[in-house]
Specification:
With 273 residues, this protein is α+β, with helices and mostly antiparallel strands. Helix content is 27%, strand content 23%. The site of zinc ion (ZN) has 7 residues, from loops.
Length: 273
């Protein structure tokens, strides 16, 4: 599943291609991905809008229109956004097509159809859930004291705290493993046992690691297009995620895999305490 660095990559790559463009026409081939409102109202609402900005909140993407209305997108497992000329053949799993004023189309493709799109009129309550998210990782308010206040009495493992979108937005299974490795904290350590130094280290490591992966994942529009809007997800810069049994890049001990709340987690039993 794309996490904050991947979603940010999509935003950065596509922004120059959508900014100031007007959506001349909307086709919804599969209404299942339109979460709100009805497909008819979605099409009527989005048609004719001019894109003022392309924003991100956690793992959500948002087309902000000049009218004040907005289109929120969550890619979930396999959703992807691509820009293609109107003349390019439409891939099989294309569910929504926004025809832009420059002759290109912004297409939403999704093999598993788990992703969702929400349209909201200006001033209308947002139904996507994006407004219920916790802090962005780069928000200066993300301090040791903030995190301590959210979970210091919780017996839940610290990994679950990092995955809780209501505390910090945008972190998933991959980057929680990478953050905990960089912070030297075991993923199964209960939040109630984290020291003040642990919380301080987390507050520094969360933005540091996400920034690192956003920079490392940077791709050109040509590379993104050649990978059909999907290849960019396979970052070769991971230290521990998916590397159970391999040597720790710091100490050489075999990395271990455990399952916490149904999610697998890989860590170094020597470097992480
Ligand atoms: Zn190690």
């Amino acid at each position: 599943m794309p996490e904050l660095p991947e979603v940010e990559t999509v935003r950065r790559v596509l922004t120059p291609h959508v900014l100031k463009k007007t959506i001349a026409n909307v086709q919804a081939h599969n209404a299942q991905v339109i979460a709100y409102p009805s497909p008819e109202l979605f099409i009527a609402g989005v048609t004719g809008q001019t894109i003022a900005d392309f924003a991100r909140r956690g793992k959500f993407l948002r087309l902000l229109f000049e009218s004040g209305d907005s289109l929120t997108i969550h890619l979930r497992m396999t959703g992807c956004l691509i820009i293609e000329p109107q003349t390019a053949p439409v891939e099989k799993h294309t569910h929504v097509i926004l025809s832009l004023s420059d002759g290109n189309e912004l297409r939403y493709e999704d093999v598993r159809r788990l992703g969702k799109l929400w349209f909201a009129k200006s001033g209308e309550p947002d139904t996507s859930g994006a407004n219920e998210l916790g802090l962005e990782p780069f928000d200066g308010a993300l301090t040791a004291a903030y995190m301590q206040g959210k979970c210091k009495n919780s017996k839940k493992p610290v990994k679950s705290m990092l995955l809780d979108q209501r505390i910090v937005a945008g972190i998933g299974n991959i980057y929680s493993d990478e953050i905990l490795f960089a912070a030297g904290i075991r993923p199964d350590k209960p939040c109630s046992e984290l020291s003040g130094a642990n919380f301080k280290r987390l507050a520094e490591t969360i933005p540091d690691r996400l920034r690192f992966f956003i920079d490392k994942n940077a791709v050109s529009f040509a590379e993104y297009a050649a990978g059909k809007g999907q290849e960019y997800r396979n970052t070769p810069f991971l230290h521990v995620y998916g590397k159970s049994g391999e040597p720790c890049p710091v100490c050489g001990a075999a990395l271990r895999r455990i399952v916490l709340g149904g999610r697998s987690s890989v860590f170094c039993p020597h470097c992480q305490h």
